[in-house]
Amino acid sequence: MNDDRVVFDRRDFLKLVGIGVAGVTAGCAKPPAEKLIPYLVAPEDVLPGVPYFYASTCRECPAGCGLIVRTREGRAIKLEGNPAHPLNQGGLCARGQAGLQGLYDPDRIKTPLVKDGANWKAATWDEALALVGGKIAAARTKTVLLTGLETGTMRALAGEFGSSVGAKHVMWEPFGYEALRAANRATFGIDAVPRFDVGAARCLIAFGADLLETFLSPVGQARGFAQMRAQRDDGGGHFVTVEPRLSTTGANADEWVAAKPGTEFAGVRTKSRRSPTCRRKRSRGSRASSPSARRASRWRAASPPRARTAPRSPPRSTC
């Protein structure tokens, strides 16, 4: 019979025992101590456990809705709409609510990154500033400062920085409103993006304008849309949308007109001649008795929603 026993000498046995004891000891070691530093000398505007609220502006999209930021010990913990803000009036969309995720995202870039072939490598702030300064100095007057749609002090800061280094400040946004700005300038003489008073409209026609999703300020327009719909008992609140796809706005319309992309405005005259719905609904809801009063009420029903920046009444249109 073969003897399969493994024989260790005394020295090897002591080595194996020492390795086992070391492994067990490392596994049972305590985690590194973390120090909790209390507010021995707390700031005057911070009380532990007491939330503080600050008014701010949401920058998740170009609309710029008003925010109320709830903070605890100097850290933002909740975002809500500002009820006193004239744009969103206390409402806040999902993108605004998710603003804290961008602030506390663990994958957020924490250090400057420098391109190294196909990869990025971390660099210190001194290295990054020296590299950027050298590149800007070498490409003076040929540099472009690209930012999102900024306003107020952030826009002024970007402009001053661009002027100091000889760079042209260019603002970019996914949804451009240059055409809307030009139309407002040609119609009302004001070079600005208007804010439409949707809640005061009795009949509204949207040509490719996704009022409840992406167009201008969806939160403010959704509240105005609800106010407009409240006029239905008085014969108003009729909504027609012309667009190539059935969006959320089109799904909430009384009449949805499917159009090929780029041809939304081609059916204006056809729609105004064949569908006098707004005039009919307004005349039924009106209590005017004289012919002149009825004509005036029909014209008011056919008028488009007024822009906030308009210095005079909008031109007549039919609905």
Keywords for this entry:
319 residues; alpha/beta; N-terminal domain of TfIIb; three-stranded parallel beta sheet; 11 helices; 10 strands
Percentage of helical residues? 25-40%
- Rg over CA atoms, rounded to whole Å, is 32 Å
* Sheet/helix structural class: alpha/beta
Mean pLDDT: 78
Largest sheet: 3 strands, antiparallel
Apparent shape: elongated
User: What would you say the CATH architecture of one domain is?
Assistant: 3-Layer(aba) Sandwich
The total of beta strands comes to: 10
CATH class call of one domain? Alpha Beta
Commentary on this structure:
Helix 10 packs across helix 11. The protein has helices spanning 10-27, 94-97, 99-103, 125-138, 152-164, 178-188, 218-229, 248-251, 268-274, 277-285, 291-302; strands spanning 52-57, 66-72, 75-81, 113-116, 119-122, 143-147, 167-171, 203-207, 238-243, 255-258. Among the domains are: 52-103, Single Sheet (N-terminal domain of TfIIb), CATH 2.20.25.90; 113-171, no CATH class; 192-302, Dimethylsulfoxide Reductase, domain 2 (3-Layer(aba) Sandwich). With 319 residues, the protein is of the alpha/beta class. The chain is elongated and about 105 Å long. The protein has 11 helices and 10 strands.
